[in-house]
Amino acid sequence: MSDTLRPVSIYTLFAQLFSSVAREVTADFGAAGAAAVRRGVRKYGEARGRHIAQNAALDGRPNTIENYLPYYDMERSGLFVYATAMSDNLIDQEFYKCPFAEAWIKDGDQSLGKLYCDEIDRAIAAGFNPGLKHEEITHLLDGAPSCHMTFQMKKGDKNAK
Fold it and tell me: pTM score, two decimals?
């Protein structure tokens, strides 16, 4: 490895790849392209959620809110700074630092990053359990000091407490 080159985080590379593809699709197809990118992110997220549920099931665990984060599929390196609080039937997360958001902000690609961020967590939760609802409260890409989100099992869901 060169003494002058530094490795780039996989999160940064992912964000840059995503924005490069989304930029071309939206440039060529406008709003229809943006909608297609969002649909693709949703399908990808739902598949990830189903995979998380399958991993929990391999350990004999149901796809309840208590098993969502322990079986979550993406490693969280020190590049993420966040706080998580769990209470009965609720996950409250606040991300103060996110390498995806940092890359999109640095490159001026907040609107492209939003195509991903507006869909991914909601889709993963729905793929894991259709009764697990995601709500975005604030977002780094909108200039907020954090991405604040909650996940709550819909009342009456068979997997709710």
Answer: 0.91
Angle value at C-alpha 8, between 25 and 122, nearest 5 degrees: 50
- All structural domains of the chain with their residue ranges: 10-153
- pLDDT above 70 as % of the chain: 94
In CATH terms, is domain 10-153 a member of 3.30.1380?
yes
The Cα 110–Cα 149 span in angstroms is 18
Q: Which position has the token pair 């407490």?
A: 161
SS3 state at 35: helix
Nearest Cα neighbor of 120 from 99, 138, 97, 136 is 136
Q: Contact 119/45 with Cβ under 8 angstroms? A: yes
Q: Alpha helices, DSSP H only, in 59-138?
A: 99-106, 110-128
Distance in angstroms (rounded) separating the CA atoms of residues 80 and 133: 23
List all residues 6 or more positions away from 151 whose beta carbon is below 8 Å from its beta carbon.
65, 68, 90, 91, 93, 121, 125, 132, 133, 134, 135
What confidence tier does 155 reach under pLDDT thresholds 50, 70, 90? confident
The letter for the amino acid at 128 is F
